[in-house]
DNA sequence: GTTAGCACTCGTCGGCAGAGAGTGCTAACA
DNA sequence: TGTTAGCACTCTCTGCCGACGAGTGCTAAC
């Protein structure tokens, strides 16, 4: 599964077979149609005949790296073929420095508005990778409160604003158990903020005991809010770039539907999350390798970002099995680095 | 354009012709294929022959309410035909009380987390109307500050949280011109909040004159933030329910692409906004009636919500010209009412 | 080990005929 | 005068057939 997993087949292939596979993958990725021996022979750096290529293709097919969808009509890579390509033939996935500069530049322009970071990251990633991007907001294992604020709306209604250590902000509406004007709420806030600073949901709840009605209610709501910010079910997935894959032949029929289903529910996250390694290495799942059945016909490139043990999010790319893994991997890797850097700024304080 | 616009053609149609048109629209909406005289004759409450229906269809075609895409093969409604249907034949678009109760119930469960109101409204609306929904966050003509807060991240970096009168919250990252710890920032906040409460972007900017470096920078950033919250360009459109229309034959080809393009940019809002009437009446645009060329093949049902003159948002539904206008109009109308009620709660305070 | 040649397979595309749905028109009927 | 049955006509859709071409495996020669 892992990009760095050792692969035994390497020895079995001759240099020319590797070249054939490399060219075949590249050609198939752009054309989307089975590739024949003649096409490959033309693209070959050395001058070889199509018959030679045919022999090599037969060998590759025997190892299970390519297959023919129909008896006539060219070959396409298998999932294993892609896997081999990604491991050994692709080269180092590093975004061109031009792209890197462009992305950093774009990000600098929205840096100030951190509510839009996640949305923006999704857009940039979709554009760069040329596929559907997936980004979750960063969240910490257990959300700890940094600050909260209450604003009176009506005598018995107030706005509660929570700010966590990882600078996530949530606003909630409170239905107060008793009348309270802004002055009352402000006084209450001044008293309570030092009491709850740095606490998680459980700790806040434990403070409820012995508190009078209004503070008890506020504490309860804070705990609910904190819990919601940490839970996986409530983690929203932002995505972008649907247009990149919806036009492609693979998703013409019901498959396009499936993508939308996947992106909407939390099933995708549930399937992917357990597979994510702790480090920030880019993970690649090709076709059958995918944990979820629904992803069986997709290529998925994911990475975590954030600060280990403190706050992490996920970002990645979803596309047809026939996608440019080079583009996707390099984009995901770079974006994960970029987002991690940004988190660093936000989180380095106490 | 308006739902209530008078329509002169009414007199011209006999009761039976109206019935034919009504049945034809209904049938075409569900089947998506041209409807023939025989099908209509079978569905007719009175017993009539297909020949009679053919005569009536010819009359309707002469008036411009139906057309035949091909010489043989049934008829479909024209945009004018839909318009007539919506005006005179559809009946009162009122959501069933069951649906109303279900929606209110669902909303009660997320009421507390008002960051997710807009997203949630989009989901509910898409589901109820069976089309793509569009919802913008409520915004006021000119955003006025209710409260702000600063949280120190690093010596020269801080988080600025703005809360406006209409309870919108925005978080921004500040790069401070000089070192400032939390105590300094808190003191500064205490002093500045009373100065800027209730002010708009311009008023905040006017206070910069004469302020020392740090307060001047903060005021400047507040003004930028306020301005961003009010501007149309920065208004995000949330949408949901793509799966509802992407499967339909109308959007099989490049048209599906177009929808995505529309939803992504701000072009949609720019085209629709000038057309919205001030009241909260539901507006219906059918095919050619649409202000933007890109919408030429869509049906659009929109309404504003909020509190007149104070804070308003837009919500609506986008679908193929052949959509169930009854479902869409009733859903949009109900959701606009619901959201307005919610705004009322948030905004009724000073 | 490589290559040219050849017979074979099979998907794609255009043309074509038949079925079916729907229409307009006319003549008969109430 | 309005309604209906009948009929000839049009046009789409579908399946079928054959030509074409891309690609293959195999064999024999280099």
Number of DSSP helical runs of chain A: 13
| Overall 3D shape of chain A | elongated
* Structure classification of chain A: alpha+beta
Kindly state the number of beta strands of chain A: 11
| Alpha-carbon Rg of chain A, integer | 26 Å
Biggest beta sheet attributes of chain A: 6 strands, antiparallel
Helix content of chain A: 40-55%
Unreliably modeled segments of chain A: 1-10
Q: Would you tell me the overall average pLDDT of chain A? A: 88
Strand content of chain A: 15-25%
Q: CA-to-CA gap between the ends of chain A?
A: 37 Å
H-E order of chain A: HHHEEHHHEEEEEHHHEHHHEEEH
The largest contact between protein chains, plus residue counts on each side, is:
A-B, 44 and 44 residues
Structure description:
The structure is a homodimer of 350-residue chains. By secondary structure, chain A is α+β, with helices and mostly antiparallel strands. Chain A has helices at residues 15-31, 37-43, 50-63, 79-89, 97-110, 117-129, 182-196, 201-206, 213-230, 242-246, 254-264, 267-272, 325-347, and strands at 66-67, 76-77, 132-136, 139-140, 145-154, 157-164, 169-175, 237-240, 283-286, 298-307, 311-320. The structure holds a DNA duplex (30 and 30 nucleotides).
Short description:
The structure is a homodimer of 350-residue chains. Chain A has 350 residues and is of the alpha+beta class. The first copy, chain A, has helices at residues 15-31, 37-43, 50-63, 79-89, 97-110, 117-129, 182-196, 201-206, 213-230, 242-246, 254-264, 267-272, 325-347, and strands at 66-67, 76-77, 132-136, 139-140, 145-154, 157-164, 169-175, 237-240, 283-286, 298-307, 311-320.
């Amino acid at each position: 599964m892992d990009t760095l997993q050792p692969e035994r087949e390497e020895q079995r292939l001759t240099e020319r077979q590797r070249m054939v596979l490399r060219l075949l993958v590249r050609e198939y990725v752009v054309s989307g149609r089975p590739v024949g021996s003649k096409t490959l022979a033309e693209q070959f750096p050395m001058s070889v005949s199509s018959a030679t290529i045919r022999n090599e293709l037969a060998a590759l097919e025997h190892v299970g790296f390519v297959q023919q969808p129909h008896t006539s009509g060219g070959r396409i890579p298998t999932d294993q073929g892609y896997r081999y390509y990604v491991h050994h033939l692709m080269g180092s996935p590093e975004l061109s420095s031009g792209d890197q500069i462009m992305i950093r530049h774009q990000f600098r322009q929205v840096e100030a508005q951190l509510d839009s970071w996640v949305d923006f990251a999704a857009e940039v990633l979709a554009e760069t990778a040329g596929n559907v991007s997936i980004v979750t907001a960063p969240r910490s294992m257990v959300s700890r409160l940094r600050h909260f604020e209450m604003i009176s709306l009506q005598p018995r209604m107030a706005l509660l604003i929570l700010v966590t250590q990882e600078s996530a902000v949530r606003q909630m509406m409170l239905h107060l158990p008793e009348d309270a004007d802004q002055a009352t709420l402000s006084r209450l806030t001044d008293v309570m903020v030092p009491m709850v600073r740095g606490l998680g949901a459980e700790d806040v709840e434990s403070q409820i005991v012995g508190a009078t009605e209004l503070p008890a209610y506020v504490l309860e709501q804070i705990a609910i809010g904190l819990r919601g910010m940490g839970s996986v079910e409530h983690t929203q997935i932002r995505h972008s770039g649907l247009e990149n894959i919806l036009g492609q032949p693979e998703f013409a029929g019901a498959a396009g539907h499936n993508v939308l289903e996947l992106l909407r529910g939390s099933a995708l996250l549930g399937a992917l999350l357990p597979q994510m390694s702790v480090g920030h290495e880019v993970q690649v799942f090709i076709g059958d390798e995918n944990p979820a059945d629904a992803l069986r016909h997709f290529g998925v490139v994911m990475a975590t970002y954030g600060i280990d043990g403190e706050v992490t999010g996920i970002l990645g790319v979803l596309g047809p099995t026939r996608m440019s893994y080079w583009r996707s991997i390099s984009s995901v890797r770079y974006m994960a680095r970029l987002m991690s850097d940004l988190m660093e700024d936000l989180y380095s304080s106490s």
